[in-house]
Amino acid sequence: MKLGTTIAMLALFGALTTANAQSETSKDAATSQAAIEAMGEGFTSGMVDAGDTKIHYIRGGTGPAVLLIHGFPQDWSEYRGIMPALSKHFTVVAIDLPGIGGSTVKESGYNNASVGRDIDALVRGLKLDDVYVVAHDLGGGIGYSYARQFPSSLRGLMILDVPIAGLEPWETVKTLPFVWHFAFHQLPDHFAETMITGQLVPYFKHFFTTGTVNHASISEADVQRFAAAYTAPSSLTAGMEYYRAFPKDEVFNAAQTGPCGFPVVLAAGDHSFAALLPPLAKDLKAHGCADVSIETIVDSAHYVTEDQPEQVIALIEKYAATKN
């Protein structure tokens, strides 16, 4: 093959790759906008420059600030079912984690501590004072690291249905069959991305089917929307990088032993991590968090905001209304 032909073919491949990435970005933006509009009037979206990433957020309501951090395999819209109710009492802000959905990809730094600093940049950029943080799934560790690094900026933290890397009973959690994906997502050389590219809908559907009591609470359209947030190759890699950062997260979280200065609520589904909350609460107290409460979300598995939105709304209204 002649050199000129080879160069032309490489240029064409690059152009097609760029076009596909732009197409997926446009698709995600469209599905995200549709989810915003479905919540009714009063919600706006925007971007905040956090330095190494630009964070996409959706904001609505007035009152004390509540920041919502999603998990995997979701984006900001995992909170779409509870934001309208919360906006009646709070300024509610839901974000796309760096690299996911409408937020831009970081070159590195998907560990909890680094992303926690991105969250701080977002909070300062939006001028949110005394924020209450609600974080689900792998967002829980990010919320915890943000709170540990910037304790004076928040009035409380609620962690929804997830253990914290480096704190008990983390070593036990890693041996549980239903978290098999922890190891799979951490495999090097982009192996996980290679295996699931083009299969995100059925792959994500597995998590939603096994992670809900009410399977109808996450529809086919919802799965398609969540998949769109990860379809761009760089976004899918970002999603895996959060898992590959677990070893760093373990070290960071285990090292945090000073006084928390903020109350922590651990809430989990009775069909999910609820039984593991007491040892986590005990270890949090041993690490300096004196005020730790436990709440059980009844008839719920892992995806609590979809399985039991009314219970989650009630918990947030209970704990976020005032500084505890």
Question: Briefly, what is this?
Answer:
The protein is α/β, with parallel strands linked by helices.
Protein traits:
324 residues, 8-stranded mixed β-sheet, alpha/beta, 15% strand
Describe this structure in words.
By secondary structure, the protein is α/β, with parallel strands linked by helices. 46% of the residues lie in helices and 15% in strands. The chain contains 14 helices and eight strands. Strand 5 (131-136), helix 4 (139-149) and strand 6 (154-160) form a beta-alpha-beta unit. The longest helix has 36 residues, at 3-38.
Which sheet architecture does the biggest sheet show?
8 strands, mixed
- Derived from helix and strand composition plus strand pairing, the structural class reads alpha/beta
Mean pLDDT: 93
Tell me the strand percentage band.
15-25%
Trace the largest sheet across and list its strands.
1-2-4-3-5-6-7-8
Unreliable spans are 6-11, 13-21
Spell out the blueprint of helices and strands.
Elements: H1 3-38, E1 43-49, E2 54-60, E3 65-69, H2 83-86, E4 91-95, H3 112-125, E5 131-136, H4 139-149, E6 154-160, H5 170-173, H6 180-186, H7 191-196, H8 200-210, H9 220-228, H10 233-244, H11 246-255, E7 264-269, H12 277-286, E8 292-297, H13 304-307, H14 309-320
Parallel strand pairs: 3-4, 3-5, 5-6, 6-7, 7-8
Antiparallel strand pairs: 1-2, 2-4
Helix pairs in contact: 3-4, 6-10, 8-9
